[in-house]
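anyone seen this seq b4? input:
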Amino acid sequence: MSSHVTTSANFITQTTALADCVGQTPLVRLRRLPEEENISPNTQLLAKLEGNNPAGSVKDRAAFNMIYQAEKRGDIKPGDTLIEATSGNTGIALAMVAAMRGYPITLLMPTNSTQERKDAMKAYGAILIEVDEGMEAARDQALQMQADGLGIVLDQFNNDDNKEAHYLTTGPELWQQTEGRITHFISSMGTTGTISGVARYLKEQNPDVKIIGLQPDEDASIAGIRRWPAAYMPGIFDAELVDEVMDVNQSVAERYMRKLARSEGIFAGVSSGAAAWAAMQIGTANPDAVIAFIVCDRGDRYLSTGLFGIED
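predicted toks r here
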């Protein structure tokens, strides 16, 4: 971490670049929820709190790496306009980095995304275009805008810098934080950058680490994760590194989102509830396991949905 120290007769002030605040997020052990679920006390369920990143989600890692690497290669330069299709968190993270680096950015987002996400993007100065037809249409429209000369698409879905961010940071952090004892890693799958990058790193350290990906079931609509049609499957996805893909029911994901908040004090979104549910299933089946899962973001991005006020 780079820092600058200013001294005077009365104080020392240490300042840090915002870029240095991305990553090194806490890994915390669940305590009460495993007891409620009758999971063996020997099983460790560990939540990686990605909401602690500066723009509030795991996508901060990919956003920084995609923009910084594009700058290093000369793919983008001052004055260029960036374009990206997003369901929310990547857009917020890219808007933050674009603001830091001085790039105008246009984000295309499905209309059914939460108001908090839309407002956060605008707060960073992004231009937001809402798309009625969903995420696939947003991706197509972004590429058409690039073809029309309106800007440069970073393309998180097919950009290796996305998953490389997690190979270089998230994976090593998990390995170090568990002292190499991690047995299972669970991640919801959207762009698939997180699971692909982490899986590659963890499998290099120990091929026996099990990688579990989560997708919504056929009837679910869970913010931030997708059940992609074959034509839109992200190009960065490395299926060979994923040992199991679990389907998640929407009501179950929402219930476990509330359980995280009420039983553990972890205020997170619906995809994180899905990951917590999966961790419980894996933990029940694997006593003595060390199971880490990604808590993608913070729950304040979902308050307008009213989901936290529901009694289970």
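Residues 160-177 form the longest helix (18 residues). The chain has a mean pLDDT of 92. kinda curious what u guys think
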